[in-house]
Amino acid sequence: MQDATPSPTQPPVNPREAERFSRYLVGVVASPALCERYAAGVAELGLFPSGRADAWALSLAQRRDWTIGPLDAACAILHSGWALRRRLILLSAVLEASPAHADDYIPQPRGTLSVLAVCVVEGVAGVVNLLLGLVLLLLAPKGRAA
């Protein structure tokens, strides 16, 4: 585990990061209290990039909302230990544990045809995100120096 306090190469969490990531995860911006809880968790757990490509992926997701899904999909397969993926998991846990967002994690009752349609649509979207994420990762700088 890394040091819990940001060093000069580990800047504090951008306050907008939790807002962007929560919009990706549950479709709405998390409250300021949840964003603060997320930022504290990032610092406490030391969820900072460990290399240039890791830092690049996190920075891109922080700046461009449309890249969060593709980078999440690609990192889930290839780089599950990268800061972006670990931060998304942390925020998902923070949101799921809050009463305001707990229902977002409970499946809604659906008929069989509806379940199949959702599976197909979500499956196709996941593959598209993965492929786009792989292309984005090809653009990432190589090496460990941050």
TL;DR?
This protein is mainly alpha-helical and 146 residues long. 62% of the residues lie in helices and 0% in strands. The longest helix is centred in the C-terminal third of the chain and has 27 residues, at 112-138.
Describe this entry's structure for a reader.
There is one protein chain. With 146 residues, this protein is an all-alpha fold. The protein has 6 helices and no strands. The protein has helices spanning 15-26, 32-45, 52-63, 68-78, 83-96, 112-138. Helix 1 packs across helix 2, helix 2 (32-45) crosses helix 5 (83-96) and helix 4 crosses helix 6 (112-138). It is flat, with a radius of gyration of 16 Å. The two termini are 17 Å apart.
Topology (SSEs and partners):
Layout: H1 15-26, H2 32-45, H3 52-63, H4 68-78, H5 83-96, H6 112-138
Helix pairs in contact: 1-2, 1-5, 2-5, 4-6
What is the tally of beta strands?
A: 0
Tell me, rounded to a whole number, the average pLDDT. 89
Q: How many H/I helical runs? A: 6
CA radius of gyration: 16 Å
- Tertiary shape: flat
Structural class: mainly alpha
Unreliable stretches: 1-5
Gap from first CA to last CA = 17 Å
- Profile the largest sheet: none
Tell me the β content: under 5%
